Amino acid sequence: MLTTEFIDERNAAELPHHLTDYQALGERLARRGLDVERAVETLAAFDLAIPSWSLGTGGTRFGRFPGPGEPRNVFEKMDDVAVIHRLTGAASGVSLHIPWDEPDDPAALRGHAAALGLRIDAVNSNTFQDQPGQRLSYKFGSLAHTDPAVREQAIEHNLHVIEVGEVLGSTALSVWLADGSNFPGQMHLRRAFDRTFDGLARIYAALPDEWRMFIEHKPYEPAFYAAVVQDWGSSYLLAHALGPKAQCLVDLGHHLPATNIELIVARLLGAGKLGGFHFNDAQYGDDDLTAGSIHPYRLFLVFNELVDAARDRLPDFDPAYMIDQSHNLKDPIEALLQTVDQVQRAYARALIVDRDALDAYQEANDVLMAERTLQQAFETDVGPLVAEARRRNGAAIDPVATFRASGYRAARGEERGAVAYAPPQSL
Ligand code: PSV
Ligand code: MN
User: Fold this and answer.
1) N or C: which end of the chain has fewer CB within 10 A?
2) Is residue 422 assigned to a domain?
3) Is 416 part of a structural domain of the chain?
4) Distance from the alpha carbon of residue 216 to the mean position of ligand 2, in angstroms
């Protein structure tokens, strides 16, 4: 359905216009002393991971509105990721949540992924919900819990996730903890952090060679008073004390309004502790919206730091690029295609910043021209550059239009079933 021939055919119809636009952009950039070909090559090598939990309609506690043809199991989720990868040429990774998407046969899932040209990125441990049959509850925390038996259970779960991840071919464990308190006095703030560190140290000790541990901070929710790993400082303290394999993960939705996220990225880069990203966007809190939908300039400024770090050849610079989004309204595949495109655009814009000029303006304290150098890149229509990177990877010039024309969703609706009824939830 979404075969190479189909994509080529769709691309062929758009090619004349696309090439005209690409050439015009190249000439425009050349006048600024920039090489479009270099940017396109770098962008074409960019690759990120799709989270297994984003392929079905998300939902809120106020309801869930599923659409037709959503994947029924993790194998079908892989099939959908393969479609996103085929259309964008930039999404060969899959990040799995365990136990949400724990396969009965991890080796078979690895084979299925490989056959589709996919790889398994970070595996995420889940100690924020009780699972059917679970012995002890995480109601009052997991690694930070006051009861050593609950902590032990959470540690065991993480060790299990590493084992499954090894069979899947993953090389990273992402740990996000819901641990924290909802009321002052509920939790001993210092001791809870110390217990968390002790648990993470046990898990860290079990990491295979070549593996990394990503620690993901989040200011609140579900802990509304004090989250144990609340901010990048807490995450950094843990990662630093644990050792070189531990790094910090920046989820763009995990910051209070007005936080300067690119500054956090710069700090973590400088400390060699930037492990990776969960891309999404937010207006208020952890809204999990499409990347770039609310703050495209900020996404560009984050990539500006990354391109700068790559240019400076910072040691330990190897961020894992992952998406973490959840939609109630858009078709999940289309929303992911849009996010990949937005991330590619932010990266493309960062690649066409005139860095020598920026350096010089910064050194000379020419505030206006330094800012203008960034704005000039951001305001450039990089659509043709991004489309060209995709085309060279055999992907679609226009992924969403190609996806819609393919009839993939309707066909999956026939095969996987129409809209699943989502029972009303009590509020
Ligand atoms: C928590 O809000 C988070 O960002 C973590 O990455 C989880 O793994 C993910 O969302 C899914 O709940
Ligand atoms: Mn996240």
Assistant:
1) C
2) no
3) no
4) 7
